[in-house]
Design a protein that fits this description.
This protein has 22 helices and 22 strands. By secondary structure, it is of the alpha/beta class. One of its GO terms (biological process) is proteolysis.
Amino acid sequence: MSTDKSWTKALFGGIWSVLNFSRKLFFNIIFLVIAVAIISLIFKDNGQIGVKQDSALVLNLRGDIVIQKHAIDPFEAFMQEALGQENEKPEVLLQDILLTLDNAKQDQRIKALVLDLQELNGAGLDKLEQIAQAIDDFKLSEKPVYAIGDYYTQEQYYIASHADHVYMNPMGWMLFEGYGRFGMYYKSALDKIKATTHVFKVGTYKSAVEPLIRDDMSQAAKEANKAWLNAMWSQYKNNVAEARGLSADNFDEKVDEFMVKFEDVNGDFAQYALENGWVDGLKTREQVLQELASVVGEEDSKRGYTNITFKHYLQIVNPPLPHLDTNVDKVGVVVAKGTILNGDQKPGTVGGDSTANLLRKARLDDSIKSVVLYVDSPGGSAFASEIIRQEIENLKAAGKPVVALMSTYAASGGYWISASADEIWAAPSTITGSIGIFGMFVSFENTLDYLGVHTDGVGTTDFAGMGITRGIDPKMGQVLQRSIEHGYDQFISLVADERHMSKEDVDSIAQGRVWIGETALSLNLVDHLGYIDDAVSAAAQLADLSEYDVTYVERSLNSSELFWKEFFSNASVMLAKTQFAQSDSKLMSLISQVTADFDHVIKLNDPRGVYAFCLTCEI
C-alpha cells in the first residue's frame, strides 16, 4: 500500500512540477515582453519614419472602408500583431484616406500617387465617390496618378478609373458584375426541424423577415430592390464612364453582348479590358516597377521605387498626439455606425444608451455649438432608435442645431434617428427609407414534441408561459400585431411631423420601401445631397459660426485605458512575427454567411421585440 501511495504521490508531484514550471515560464516571458516594450517606449525614435524627396505615395488600402472602426481590445490587437495573425475584417477609416490625399496634394516631397488596391475589400458607393473626388482634387497639383493591379474588383476599379494611368497584369482580369441582392432563405430548413416562425409586420415592402418565412424573394421585394439597385448601378456607370472618357453604353450587361467582344480577344479578360478602354496598358509587375522608378527614382526596397505607404504617411500627417483643447467654437460629429441595438454598445455598433450618451456629451460641452449625426446604419431596435432620437430633441432644445448626414445606409431605424434633425443630408447613393417595423421570434414547440419533450404548467394570466417552448396563442398574436401597427403609425407620424408631410403621403412612400439618396431628395425624405464637409458646413452655418474646429465626440477613455492602448500599440512592433495559414475554403465562407444571417437576428435585443431594420439594404 505504501508503495502505491508513494507512486501516486510522485506522479502528481511530477505533474505539479511541470505545471508550476510552465506557469513560471509563461509569466516570465510575458514579463520580458512587457519590459522590452517599456524600454522601447522610453527610447523609441519618433523620427524613424520620414518622407524622402520625390516619393510616390502608395495608397495601399487593406480591408473595408468605414466611417468608424469596430472596437478591438488593445491586448487582442497586440497579440494579433505579435503572432502575425491578420484581423479577420480589417478596416480603414474614410477620413484618414481623405486627410492623406489632401496633405499629399500640397506636400512637395510627394511626386506621384500610386493606387495599389489589391487588398481593398469593400466600400459603399458613397465612400468610393468621396475618395474619387479626393483623387481628382489631388490631380490638380499636376502630379501623376497611377493605378496598378493584377486584377480589379468592381469597388477597386471605381477608384482606379480616376487615375491618369490604369495598368493591369497581362494575366489579370476584371468584370463588371453590377449590383444585386441575393440571400439565402430558410423556411424549408426550419420546417424540417418543425420550428414555427411568428412574424408581425407592417409594410408591403418590409422584407427583412422573408428569409425565415419564405424560400424565395417575394415579388414586392424584387420590385423594390430592383428599383434602387438600378438607380445605384446607373450612378456607378455614369461616374466611371465620365472618369474614363467613355460612354455609359460601354458596359456589357448581357452575356450575349459580352461574348461577342470576348470571342474577339480569344477569351482573354486582360485584353478585353484593354480593347474596351477600361485600362491603359497591360504591364507585368517588373514593367510597372521600372516605369514608376523612372518617375520617382529607384530604391532598394520591396517596391523598388522611392515611396511611402499610406499607413506610414498617415502616421506623419496625423500623429497620435493627445487632444489639445482650444477656445475655438466647435462642430461636434457623433458617429452612428452599425446595427442599432439596445443598451451600451462598442464602436462599430449603434447602442441606444451609448450613442445617446455621446449626444448628451455634445449637449453638455459648451464649446460644441452644433452637431452632425453621421449615420451609417440599416437600423435595428425601434426602442433604441427612439432613445437616440430623443437626445436629438434635447440638443435642439438646448439651442444646438443638428444635421443628420447619411453615409452608405440610413434606412429604417437609421432614418428614425435622423428624422428629427434640423437638416438631413445624404449622398446620392445613400440607401435610405425602409420606413416600416416588424416583430419576430421562432418557437420550437413542434420540434420538442417530435423529440418527445413537452412543456406544460399553469399561469395566473393568459400571457404567462409564452415563449420558444410553447409558441403563442393566436389571440396573443393579435395583440402583438396591433402593437406593431401602432409602432408603424408612430414611425410615419414622426416622419410626417418632421418632414411637414401628411401621414397619407408618408405612407405612400413608406411600407418598408427602400430608396437611394437622389430619389429620397425628390420625395422630401432628405434636404440636400452631399458629404461630410457639406454637412459640417451646414451645421456651422445653422449655428452662425464663421470660425470653428471639428471634433469627433467619442467616449472618454480613463487614464488606465489610455495607457494600455498606447502601451500595446507600441509594444507590438518589438515582437517577432510568425505567420499562420488562413483558410480560404469556399465551404467555410458559405457557413460564415449562414451564421451571419442568423447572427443578425440573434443580436437584435429590443425590449419590446419591435424592430426598424432593413436587412435587404445590405448588398
